[in-house]
Amino acid sequence: MNGAIARTGVLRALGAMSGTSLDGVDAAVVETDGITISAFGPSGYRAYLPEERAILRAGLGRWQGAEVELAGDVVDVAHFEALRRFEGIDLVGFHGQTLAHDPRGHGTLQVGDGAALAEALGLPVVWDFRSQDVRMGGEGAPLAPFFHFACAKWMGATAPLAFLNLGGVGNLTWIDPSQPAPEVPGALLAFDTGPANAPVNDLMSARLGLEMDAGGALAAQGTVAEGMLEEFLAARFFARMPPKSLDRNDFAFASKLVEPLGDADAAATLTAMSAAAVARGMEHCPQPPARVLVTGGGRRNPVLMRMLAAGLDCPVEPVEAAGLDGDMLEAQAFAYLAVRVARGLPTSCPGTTGVRAAVGGGIVSVPGA
Ligand SMILES: Nc1ncnc2c1ncn2[C@@H]1O[C@H](COP(=O)(O)OP(=O)(O)OP(=O)(O)O)[C@@H](O)[C@H]1O
Ligand SMILES: CC(=O)N[C@H]1[C@@H]2OC[C@@H](O2)[C@@H](O)[C@@H]1O[C@H](C)C(=O)O
């Protein structure tokens, strides 16, 4: 199907996400009518080349100018390459790359041209998912929670549970799966918890020229500086009632705090900060979840996972324990959300972004329009 999007029935949607860690483009297929997940399909990954990553990095925190234009070009090319391999697709959900996020001020900026991608792929593309939520007073993030709700239904969950995404930034979705729909008050509470991997990645890059603390190996050798951890937890952000969202570098002060420490102690302390931020966030949830399902790259860090489990009163497991794919959950989320946008269904609500009322977002670009 190239033109119009069917108004009813199950669609085969291809979602694409380029996250805050700037590693690459995740792409994944979901079959859904916008409410129920019928099936998960194939997935793929297109890594950014080092020079592309440098261009994206130069665009971070900017709202306009040559750096933003160049970053947009990188995003467009990488997504075309990531997405053109898929077949039998009805529509695409294209998140783009967040360069800057300031919902109370400038707004939110995801670069990538959905209209151009629609022409290049010959498929309808849903994009610019966050702006409408911000215009309606919301944080514009996180948006995965409506998908998490559908996943909880897909799993057959009956007790409240939480999804925790540990990317550059952490975000938590608390779900009452007994509710009939995600926008029903009390069904969802979602918010960014604090920094997750970004500060440790930045430390590894600045001090050792490495991308990450693989396996938490460096953190495992260090000792947590408890005083610094307390100072970190005193930040106003943690006391703020959710919903709330963060820009990748909003916690730059945490990186500054650990500057006097040796490499291992700094890595241990930054890792402990990410875990402690989640535990603090959990205090805002209406009731303790029966389990926490962890998605995103942070689930591969056993030190972070151990620290999380120590701070929470329930099982903390990778989403694979529930039959989901933790590398692709965000790409799948934007596939699912694309169908919701195409069908006029909401993608956020007061419990997920603080928006005034449940709202859909996104632009639908159809090739040849
Ligand atoms: N084996 C590993 N050991 C330790 N950390 C890891 C490992 N694998 C991935 N990570 C961490 O996870 C990060 C990537 O996570 P992910 O792909 O979920 O981020 P993202 O999707 O870009 O971010 P966001 O969800 O914030 O947009 C890496 O940069 C690294 O910090
Ligand atoms: C503004 C923005 O791009 N935020 C991302 C980022 O990465 C994780 C966290 O911060 C979350 O708020 C969001 O992404 C996920 C996919 C979301 O919207 O649910």
UniProtKB/TrEMBL annotation:
* UniProt catalytic activity: 1,6-anhydro-N-acetyl-beta-muramate + ATP + H2O = N-acetyl-D-muramate 6-phosphate + ADP + H(+)
SUPFAM superfamilies documented for this protein? Actin-like ATPase domain
Q: Name one GO molecular function term.
A: kinase activity
Q: Does the keyword Nucleotide-binding apply?
A: yes
Give the keywords, sorted: ATP-binding, Carbohydrate metabolism, Kinase, Nucleotide-binding, Transferase
Question: Which pathway does it take part in?
Answer: Cell wall biogenesis; peptidoglycan recycling; Amino-sugar metabolism; 1,6-anhydro-N-acetylmuramate degradation
Mind telling me which InterPro entries this protein's record contains?
Answer: Anhydro_N_Ac-Mur_kinase, ATPase_NBD
> What positions does the entry give for ATP binding?
19-26
Taxonomy, superkingdom: Bacteria
Q: Which GO terms describe its biological process?
A: 1,6-anhydro-N-acetyl-beta-muramic acid catabolic process; amino sugar metabolic process; peptidoglycan turnover
Q: What is its EC number?
A: 2.7.1.170
Family of the protein in this entry? Belongs to the anhydro-N-acetylmuramic acid kinase family.
HAMAP family in the record, alphabetically? Answer: AnhMurNAc_kinase (MF_01270)
- PANTHER family linked: ANHYDRO-N-ACETYLMURAMIC ACID KINASE
According to its UniProt entry, what is the function of this protein? Catalyzes the specific phosphorylation of 1,6-anhydro-N-acetylmuramic acid (anhMurNAc) with the simultaneous cleavage of the 1,6-anhydro ring, generating MurNAc-6-P. Is required for the utilization of anhMurNAc either imported from the medium or derived from its own cell wall murein, and thus plays a role in cell wall recycling.
Output this protein's name.
Anhydro-N-acetylmuramic acid kinase
Native organism is Seohaeicola zhoushanensis
